[in-house]
Amino acid sequence: MAPSSLKWALLCVALPWAQASPSASVLQSRDEAEAYSPPYYPTPKGGWISDWAEAYEKAHKLVSNMTLAEKVNLTTGTGIYMGPCAGQTGSALRLGIPQLCLHDGPLGVRNTDHATAFPPGITVGATFDKELMHRRGVGLGEEARGKGVNVLLGPSVGPLGRKPRGGRNWEGFGMDPSLQGVASALTIQGMQSTGAIACVKHLIGNEQEVHRMSLLGTQAYSSNIDDRTLHELYLWPFADSVKAGVGSVMISYNDVNRSSCSQNSKVINGLLKDELGFQGFVVTDWLAHISGVSSTLAGLDMSMPGDGGIPGNIPLLGHSVWGPELSRSILNGTVPLDRLNDMVTRIVATWYQMGQDQDYPLPNFSVNTEDAEGPLYPGALFSPTGVVNQFVDVQSDHNVTARAIARDAITLLKNQDNILPLRRNDSLKVFGSDAGPDPDGLNSCSDKGCNKGVLTMGWGSGSARLPSLVTPQEAIANISSHAEFFITDKFPSSITPNPNDIAIVFINSDSGENYITVEGNPGDRTKDGLYAWHKGDDLVKAAAAKFHSVVVVLHAVGPVLMEEWIDLAPVKAVLHAHLPGQEAGWSLTDILFGDSSPSGHLPYTIPRSESDYPSSVAIIQQPFGQIQDPFTEGLYIDYRHFQKANITPRFPFGFGLSYTTFNFSRPSLVPINPLDSEYPAPRSPKPDTIPIYPTDIPPAAEVAWPKHFNRIWRYLYPYLDNPAAAAKNSSNTYPYPEGYSTTPQPDPRAGGGEGGNPALWEVVFSVQVQVTNAGARKGRAVAQVYVELPASLGVDTPQLQLRQFEKTAVLAPGQSETLTMDLTRKDLSVWDVVAQDWKAPVNGDGVNVYVGESVADLRGRCTVGSGCSKL
Ligand code: BGC
User: Fold this and answer.
1) Residue 714 to residue 320: CA distance in whole angstroms
2) Recorded GO terms, molecular function (predicted)?
3) Which domains does the chain carry?
4) Catalytic annotation on 307?
């Protein structure tokens, strides 16, 4: 039933963007009016950041010589299934620009052969290892380049993980903005060091899968987020990504504050391009493009895969809201030519910025078939055929990185009586289909849309084919000659264990993207909730009823409830192996048998009950109309909420045991740059380097069909049948969006560089701690830095917020390492919704900085101005 508008008025949180008054000194809290996304026009142009200067100069020269058709070509995909990649633009071959291949995804090159299936983001987050984050980025970039992918569609930092049941949280790095931000920036730097363009996604508020897209009868949901929450949580990792120089950003399907992200001028023009100073290009999510002129004016630069999405368009019939329509809107003067020039300049500059003008390979694979030859345009009725797969092996030695990540993410949650590590001659009985292979064969389900055998990743576009897989079963069998396997989820009732037998029980929990439903879960975990799939709890309990010692191994996309068995006496150990990717087997045995100590830490909280979360983070379902999803919990997601509500979870954020123990000593806080003002130093004005082009509307003939042109049905071209008619129709009657203007906005004070005002990134304190291995086995420790901001800031702020982390090398017993972690001005600031700027406590007065092994296990505290102590 549709809720009354009064109720919605009370529930929805408003954006105070429009009312911001720089003179007011008190921070405005969220109020409860209707969500609204204010207009923000025109689109800020790219080309004013010095790191991009050379690329923009080259792009300026090249774009100056482009015809209208060539320009439109680069902005619009050629149509779904109209080429080898998830999407490809048209080309400007005359000027040396090929079709650009945009392809998934965040953990490897999707749907192809001879490519590494790295562990997904959530596993990477659990390593808390910056070096591995970067190294995986390099591997992803090298493989993208090797396959001819120009733009690899990752990393994913949205969803942030607000909703524990959310289907795609596993593609990102964990339920904390700083963890996501650090991991995303390192991934991007790694990827782009190879020449591949990264595409951070999905901007923004894409926190559940169900109803993410508009379909017949339903409109994509609206994530109604207040300004402060948006800045301090959801935009935070995007800011870090822009700061890292990301080349492209993917816009999400959903609305934010009742305006669809693909045409939301506040989100694209205002936040991304003005405040965050983004210099690359903005691309739609697939088929998220629902308006022509409005999206262009709102700052969108590229339509993928080119076809228009519902509502308003029937996709897949060869219709785009850009392509010829964009040509028309330029010829008839509706869209200013300088907007199109900026779109194309951004795309070409990004191409130059990554060096793709220097021998970048063309695609040598096809997502459409595994055969060597096939149709070049499978979406066409009649397509020419040719060689589409060259089976190029791009894996190099990336399996080493993949295994290191999978291993160093494994999180030991319980280890009573030090039952782990196992000895090679322990008598083992292994249970659960999650230990074994997919009975239907490797990669039996497309896009991993099934949960069979060991769970290596979730499903959807964020998956990749496994090039090979050593299952936990095979890896254990290879090491132990005393292991017996029961690769079934039904406990064999006839079994009679010997007293010394150890049961290892494998369970899992899966989720994925909404276009596939797996065992009743339409992406989000709506059916299985936070419980293990395949009656995993029963399997553990049955084993615990017969064995004295049970080790549970969990593969999961996110938090899983363990209350039914975690306190049972026989359940001695729990290893959370997250989603290991292709190295599922060896990474696990590395830990199980003690070659390495576990060193992963939880990138989210594991609760005792789902009701411990705020009710506002449940998945919302509604068959008709538009879901309004008010983010009423504000900043209080995951551990921020548990602390505020004083709820002790089963395992806190950041938790993870080892086979050894660590002492944290000598915490110190070294002042680096003074924090001598509430707000950062004023930003500089934009330098005068933005490319300028002639503004005359180009000749209509530039988008006429070339003579004797062999059109392919459904392929999207920039051409018009009668361009002259479009040009003549120049009476400007277009109903421009509310607030549309061509007068540039004043420079936002929080902007001024990539990611925001450069002063925000000044290091103000350096935190140091000495970590000593105090146990008897070698191992790696993670130090997590949490900040507590003072009440003097005048706003309610989460008690503790992760802002930095570091991981030691492998420390031998007795060995020490000093870790150093930098805190920036932004790390100690709150978003001031009135000033529209980041506000910090002057001199850091009243700030407490904690170093710990989890949010609930703090080992050292430093109070700015009064020193540090061990806790
Ligand atoms: C997903 C994106 C993906 C795109 C292309 C969409 O359905 O939301 O994350 O990159 O498809 O496959």
Assistant:
1) 10
2) beta-glucosidase activity
3) 398-604+655-660 (3.40.50.1700), 663-682+755-870 (2.60.40.10)
4) no
